[in-house]
Amino acid sequence: MAFSSSKVSVFSSYSLSPIVGDVPKNFISCSSVSFGLSSFPFSSLNLYKEGGRGKLMRVSGSNVSEPVTGLIFEPFQEVKKEALAVPISPNVSLARQNYTDETEAAINEQINVEYNVSYVYHSLFAYFDRDNIALKGLAKFFKESSDEEREHAEKFIKYQNIRGGRVILHPITSPPSEYAHAEKGDALYAMELTLSLEKLVNEKLLNLHSVADRNNDPQLADFIESEFLAEQVEAIKKIAEYVTQLRLVGKGHGLWHFDQSLLHDLE
């Protein structure tokens, strides 16, 4: 059995010939091999797939010579690239790859944003938990909101370490301890402040996503999209509804009912 072709893959002429004796089924006999614009004729060039795994080798007599390059992935050659070299310094991350200084700094900034917002919410929790304020629903809401923002900061810390960056914690601004507002009342004032903060966090997340795009970092972009963006717009919608409801009930008896309803929803 024999067949030939004038143009099969990278071979200028190609034939399979029956071999007498015990030979591997993956044994191939070729009369001429072409690489790019060059053709290398041999009176008898035998190729076989080493181990049946697709690695073509040139055979001369009973000795196997160098691999026929350009046909398969060569991992031991590819890993010699400088960009893939493993650092030997003990102070350098071994995991870091395609992670720019701008991206690293932007992650640290986002960590600071999340901690600052968490700190404000913790202050609001302390305010509404006072015995002379005693709005337990709002206190619980702001305690959970503070915990959530802190968890977001910790997620970014974890991600920074995964990518081989270095976490730098920036100072946190001290929030106010009083939230009384003569015109709006403390509950509405606090919830409007919360809505503005959530929109600010969303803006910062979108800026971080832009940094990922600018630095060609699809892994960071995916992390932001999958972990934060959808959740953030949902939070904005929920808090916007609370603002609307608090505007309707005012500062009187309706505020107590709003607070009780919120407490029930959170339990």
UniProtKB/TrEMBL annotation:
Top-rank taxon, per record: Eukaryota
Q: What class of enzyme is it?
A: oxidoreductase
A GO BP term here is: iron ion transport
Question: Where on this chain does Fe cation bind?
Answer: E114, E149, H152, E198, Q232
List, alphabetically, the PROSITE patterns matched. FERRITIN_1 (PS00540), FERRITIN_2 (PS00204), FERRITIN_LIKE (PS50905)
What does the record give as the reaction this protein catalyses? 4 Fe(2+) + O2 + 4 H(+) = 4 Fe(3+) + 2 H2O
Give the EC number: 1.16.3.1
Query: Is Oxidoreductase one of the keywords?
Result: yes
Recorded GO CC terms:
chloroplast
Chief subcellular location equals plastid
Q: Which UniProt keywords apply?
A: Chloroplast, Iron, Iron storage, Metal-binding, Oxidoreductase, Plastid, Transit peptide
Q: Does the keyword Transit peptide apply?
A: yes
Localization in the cell = Plastid, Chloroplast
Gene Ontology MF terms in the entry:
ferric iron binding; ferrous iron binding; ferroxidase activity
Function per UniProt: Stores iron in a soluble, non-toxic, readily available form. Important for iron homeostasis. Iron is taken up in the ferrous form and deposited as ferric hydroxides after oxidation.
Could you say which protein family the record assigns here?
A: Belongs to the ferritin family.
Per UniProt, subunit arrangement is:
Oligomer of 24 subunits. There are two types of subunits: L (light) chain and H (heavy) chain. The major chain can be light or heavy, depending on the species and tissue type. The functional molecule forms a roughly spherical shell with a diameter of 12 nm and contains a central cavity into which the insoluble mineral iron core is deposited.
| Protein name listed in UniProt | Ferritin
* Species of provenance: Lupinus albus
